[in-house]
């Protein structure tokens, strides 16, 4: 992957040499504009767009965008901190050409993730993509560990003809039902074609549990590319849906009740091409390092929730006995556990074994979520943490003594409670650095204040079409 290592004003000569051929190729495919994309602290996708002919200038000098978006809330109001939220200053958005792709779902457009760089050529400390890249690099340098990651994407399809603020399911039929698949087969076929044209390999796509809900699982990549892919996939899902007269909600709770949309993270640790979650002497074939990594994630879950479940609507979804993983518990193929150990099918353990982190939704900035989960796991490796007892079934059934013996505790029930746990977690705050850690706290508390006094119906409506 091309990265902006030690960027300087004037761009990267290697990238600049690539631009004429890229521009010509885009023009030959009828691409007139390029979407420059990143995700803010609140989990909202933000963009600037440029004509294709301006790609060379964007690569050389970046495209301006205010740093104030680091403290935007989902409703576009702004909170301020000691260092963020001011109308002063400017940043430059630099496109990553290795991930620039024509958008099959939006003819005439291409898409590229960006790194945010100061006007002096330094990496902006609030850039979530830079944070994730730094975390991955540190893991390789300090521990010799690389990662493969993927983000599951769940979304609800509503009728575009419904009143603007309402959700009317675009398909009927039961969960995982053939009825729903048939009713929206033209849409999903076009979606698969768009993914294929964009180089997004799909493992499976199917109707999910909730009304009008679908899920797609995509192939694993390195964490930065996996986060990029998550953003690109959602751009594509929405664009193809619009061409079919449908509307998409990625919100954690698009209705006030029910299971809502998750964005589970799958992650595995590798060294020299060997999967540390397979072939070891630990539980389910994990190596000692893989077990310690899982234990680190489990230990930091209460504070992680402020990053992985960052919306007031997240806490409508995070309910016991709904497969959301709301207790600090782990187990093999246990979908009520917050951390699910996936061993894979016999004959594929060495390739497929991984861990799934479940209390995650698509309001989360995927770069922040993956980076913080990795930081938590690496803390477990450094401290040689050990896993508590494994759970089976639903941890909600445990009495106080049994829960305590297994280390099972309820995760935060509200966003302010999650922020309190995050602020009490020095490992997560140190990993993010003072600027990003400050932004996470301020934005989360701002979101909580914005819906104070509202009931579940109003909270679901407030975030239904945001993410």
From TrEMBL:
- InterPro entries membership: Gln_synt_N (IPR008147), Gln_synt_N_sf (IPR036651), Gln_synth/guanido_kin_cat_dom (IPR014746), Gln_synth_cat_dom (IPR008146)
- Specify the GS beta-grasp domain's residue ranges: 29-121
Q: Which UniProt keywords apply?
A: ATP-binding, Ligase, Nucleotide-binding
SMART domains from the xrefs?
Gln-synt_C
Q: What sequence ranges are listed for the domain GS catalytic?
A: 128-467
Which superkingdom heads the taxonomic lineage of this protein's source?
Bacteria
Name the family the entry cites: Belongs to the glutamine synthetase family.
Protein name as annotated? Gamma-glutamylpolyamine synthetase GlnA3
């Amino acid at each position: 992957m091309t990265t902006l290592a030690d960027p300087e004003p004037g761009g990267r000569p290697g990238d600049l040499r690539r631009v004429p051929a890229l521009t010509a190729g885009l023009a030959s495919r009828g691409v007139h504009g390029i979407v420059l994309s990143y995700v803010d602290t609140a989990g909202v996708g933000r963009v600037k767009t440029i004509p294709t002919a301006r790609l060379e200038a964007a690569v050389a000098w970046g495209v301006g965008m205010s740093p104030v978006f680091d403290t935007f809330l989902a409703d576009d109001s702004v909170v301020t901190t000691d260092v963020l939220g001011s109308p002063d200053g400017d940043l430059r958005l630099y496109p990553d050409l290795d991930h620039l792709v024509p958008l099959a779902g939006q003819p005439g457009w291409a898409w590229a993730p960006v790194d945010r760089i100061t006007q002096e050529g330094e990496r902006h400390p609030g850039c979530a993509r830079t944070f994730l890249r730094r975390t991955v690099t540190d893991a390789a340098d300090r521990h010799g560990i690389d990662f493969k990651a993927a983000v599951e994407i769940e979304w609800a399809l509503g009728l575009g003809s419904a009143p603007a603020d309402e959700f009317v399911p675009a398909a009927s039929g039961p969960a995982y039902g053939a009825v729903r698949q048939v009713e929206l087969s033209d849409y999903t076929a076009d979606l698969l074609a768009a993914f294929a044209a964009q180089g997004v390999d799909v493992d499976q796509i199917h109707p999910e549990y909730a009304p009008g809900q679908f899920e797609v699982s995509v192939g694993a990549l390195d964490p930065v590319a996996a986060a990029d892919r998550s953003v690109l996939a959602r751009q594509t899902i929405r664009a193809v849906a619009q061409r079919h007269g449908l509307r998409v909600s990625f919100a954690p709770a698009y209705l006030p009740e029910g299971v809502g949309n998750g964005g589970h993270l799958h992650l595995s640790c590798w060294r020299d091409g060997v999967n540390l979650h397979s072939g070891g002497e630990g539980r389910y074939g994990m190596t000692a390092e893989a077990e310690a990594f899982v234990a680190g994630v489990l230990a930091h879950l209460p504070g992680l929730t402020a990053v992985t479940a960052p919306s007031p609507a997240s806490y409508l979804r995070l309910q016991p006995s709904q497969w959301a993983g709301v207790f600090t518990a782990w187990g093999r193929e246990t979908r009520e556990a917050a951390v699910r150990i996936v061993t894979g099918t016999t004959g594929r353990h060495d390739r497929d074994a991984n861990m799934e982190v479940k209390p995650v939704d698509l309001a989360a900035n995927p770069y922040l979520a993956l980076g913080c989960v990795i930081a938590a796991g690496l803390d477990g490796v450094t401290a040689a943490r050990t896993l508590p007892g494994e759970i089976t079934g639903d941890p909600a059934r445990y009495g106080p003594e049994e829960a305590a013996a297994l280390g099972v505790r309820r995760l935060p029930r509200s966003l302010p409670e999650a922020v309190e746990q995050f602020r009490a977690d020095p490992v997560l705050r140190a990993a993010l650095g003072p600027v990003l850690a400050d932004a996470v706290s301020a934005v989360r508390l701002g979101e909580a204040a914005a819906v104070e006094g509202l009931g579940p119906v109003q909270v679901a409506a407030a975030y239904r079409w945001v993410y």
